[in-house]
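Blackboard transcription, Thursday session:
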Amino acid sequence: MPYSEEHIKNKVTEGLKASHVEVVDQSDGCGAKFLVVVVSDQFQGKPSLQRHRLVHGVLEEEMKTIHAISLTTLTSEQWEKRKP
Amino acid sequence: MFRFGARYSFQIARNFSTKLNEIGNLVKQNKVVVFMKGVPEEPRCGFSNAVVQILRMHGVTYDAHDVLQDEGLRQGIKDFSNWPTIPQVFINGDFVGGCDILLEMHKNGELVEELKKAGITSALLETEGSLQDSPNKSKE
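(Written on the board underneath:)
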């Protein structure tokens, strides 16, 4: 089943109490390749591996059909620094 | 009928644990081990290619396993590391992450540190070092 950017965004926002989520469907519409940026304070003090695992957990059902996902996981602090 | 079914599922369970044991051995056979789509000479996916290019920059020699050649390995490695995607990178037998994490570690210098812990000197360090002291010094 293909997923929409909106679906992924809502699920991640809710699941990780994220303050900011960006989702880009890079699959040309097949709905199985995504670029995702997540800003959540649940990432505070956790290394990337654990942060990515949190996102995988929230998208467990979706990951069965998504064949590629590119994740950027930031805390609010890191996100502020990144902003131009 | 029932006996046949029971034996069959036993067979599956046994194959499953054999595969995980096999992977457990694979990841320890070299200090750096990569599970990827395609081979380093010819990656079959952009994410796998990114990992190959990063390791090349650091001059790392590693074992690579092509999951496209073995469906059992493709599923097995996901179960083994509890990670849903390919590529997967292991250093010193420990799961390090996929493409995004390796790229991040490459950028922030963590990869050089991890390699150092495994007793590998990154080629990026050597270039810097030789530029600083003696550029003509031959390497062992």
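Lecturer's comment: Chain A touches chain B at residues 48-49, 52-53, 56, 63-64, 67-72 (CB under 8 Å).
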